[in-house]
Design brief:
Strand order of the largest sheet: 5-3-1-6-7-8-9
Structural class: alpha/beta
Oligomer: single chain
C-alpha cells in the first residue's frame, strides 16, 4: 500500500514534526510505501521515503496553503495513493492528525466580527470545515478530549470519526534510559553549578509558548532565588524581542536561547523544572517528555496535556483565566522548596513507569492502515 502524507513544513525540532516522523516510520516498518508532500523540508530525509517538495509563491500563509493544496491535488490525481494523511487541515484527506486547536473556537474567543471578513479567516475556516464537517468522511486522530469537544461544538462531527490517541514519547527519553548520575554530569557539561536552579523551556514559536510570561515570573522571584536561577529556552524562533525583555528585567545574563538542540534529553536530566506557560497549545508533547524524564513542570491549563501534570502530581497547572501573579507565585513556591521538587520528580517517574505515554505512533498506524 502507498500512503501519501501531507505536511506544510518539516523541521526537526517541532512537536508535530516529531509525531509525523514517528507515525510515518511506524507505517513504513509494516512494509508500506511512503510519499510525503511538503513546501519545506529542513533536515535529513529518512531512507526510502519519497519526499516531493511543492514550490509555492504567495504573499500570505493562506495563499501559500491554497497553492500547495491545489498542486498536491493535481499530483495525486495523476499519481493516486491508497491513503491520504494530513498533518495540516485541508480538503480531500482520508486521515487527519489533529495537533492544532479548533480554529473556529479560537476565533470565537479571541477575534471580532470584522476578522471574519478577511481572506485569512475564510481560508482557514473552509479548510477546517472540509475536515470536520458532519458530512465529511475524514477519520480524525485526536490528542485530547478537549479538542474533540471543541470540534463537535462547531461542526457536529459524529463521535465515530474521532480516535483519541495516547501520547507518543520515545522510550529513549525515559529517565531510566539515562546514564548514572545524569543530573550532575549534564549540569557540569552545561556550566550549571550545584547551587543554581536551572529552568528549561522547550518549544518553537516563543510568543505562543509564553516565553514573555516565563521571563516576567523569573524577574518576580526574591533576589536570593532570582540571582541563582538560569533559564534555557530551546526552539525555532527569533529570540531578539525576548532578549530585550530579559535585559529590561535585568536577567539577560541568566537567560540563554538556542535555535534547536539534539541534547534536550540531557537538558531535561540536568534541569530542576520545565516551565511552559503557553497561551495556546492543543496538546504540548514537551509536558509528557518532562514526565518521562522525571522533571517537575509548571504549565497553563490551556495546554491539552496539562491534565497529565495534575494526574501525575508532578507540578503546578496555572488555571484559566490566566493571571501572571499565579505563575509568579507558583515559581517562587517551587524554587523555595527543594523537598517539593524532589517529590514531584518522584511522582513523575512513577507515572512514567505505570502509564501508557509511548504508543501513539503504533496506535495511529493501526488506524491509518485500517482505513
Amino acid at each position: 500500500m502507498e500512503i501519501a502524507f501531507c505536511l506544510y513544513k518539516y523541521f526537526p525540532f517541532g512537536g508535530l514534526q516529531r509525531d509525523f516522523i514517528q507515525i510515518l516510520s511506524a507505517c513504513q516498518k509494516r512494509g508500506h510505501q511512503i510519499r510525503v508532500y511538503t513546501m519545506v523540508w529542513d533536515g535529513e530525509i529518512p531512507a526510502d521515503i519519497n519526499v516531493i517538495i511543492i514550490p509555492v509563491k504567495a504573499r500570505t500563509n493562506n495563499g501559500r496553503n491554497e497553492a500547495f493544496y491545489h498542486q498536491v491535488k493535481t499530483h495525486l490525481t495523476q499519481h493516486p495513493a491508497d491513503i491520504i494523511v494530513g498533518f495540516n487541515k485541508m480538503p480531500g484527506l482520508d486521515i487527519y492528525y489533529a495537533a492544532d486547536v479548533c480554529y473556529a473556537e479560537k476565533v470565537e474567543k479571541e477575534k471580532g466580527f470584522f476578522y471574519k471578513l478577511t481572506k485569512r479567516y475564510k481560508h482557514y475556516i473552509a479548510y477546517e470545515k472540509a475536515v470536520f464537517d458532519a458530512d465529511s468522511h475524514t477519520k480524525l486522530l485526536m490528542l485530547t478530549q478537549h479538542q474533540i469537544n471543541d470540534f463537535k461544538k462547531h461542526y457536529k462531527t459524529p463521535d465515530a470519526r474521532f480516535y483519541l490517541l495516547p501520547p507518543g514519547i520515545d522510550l529513549s527519553r525515559k529517565y531510566d534510559q539515562q546514564i548514572i548520575d545524569a543530573k550532575p554530569i549534564y549540569r557540569k557539561k552545561n556550566a550549571i553549578s550545584e547551587d543554581q536552579f536551572l529552568l528549561l523551556q522547550v518549544g518553537s514559536y516563543f510568543k505562543r509558548k509564553g516565553v514573555d510570561r516565563t521571563l516576567k515570573s523569573i524577574a518576580s522571584l526574591p533576589n536570593k532565588i532570582k540571582n541563582k536561577t538560569m533559564l534555557m529556552v530551546v526552539g525555532q524562533d527569533s529570540p531578539t524581542r525576548y532578549q530585550r525583555l530579559a535585559k529590561n528585567f535585568g536577567i539577560d545574563k541568566q537567560v540563554l536561547f538556542f535555535q534547536g538542540r539534539n541534547d534536550v534529553v540531557e537538558l531535561m536530566a540536568a534541569a530542576d523544572m520545565l516551565i511552559h506557560p503557553a497561551y495556546q497549545e492543543a496538546a504540548g508533547i514537551v509536558l509528557i517528555e518532562a514526565i518521562a524524564a522525571g522533571l517537575p513542570v509548571i504549565t497553563t491549563e490551556i495546554c491539552g496535556y496539562a491534565f497529565y501534570i495534575k494526574h501525575a502530581d508532578c507540578g503546578i497547572v496555572i488555571d484559566e483565566p490566566y493571571k501572571q501573579k499565579n505563575l509568579n507565585n507558583a515559581l517562587t513556591t517551587s524554587l523555595t522548596n527543594k523537598s517539593l521538587l524532589n517529590q514531584w520528580s518522584k511522582s513523575a517517574r512513577h507515572f512514567a513507569d505505570t502509564q501508557d505515554l509511548y504508543s501513539l505512533p503504533e496506535k495511529a498506524a493501526d488506524i491509518i492502515l485500517g482505513c
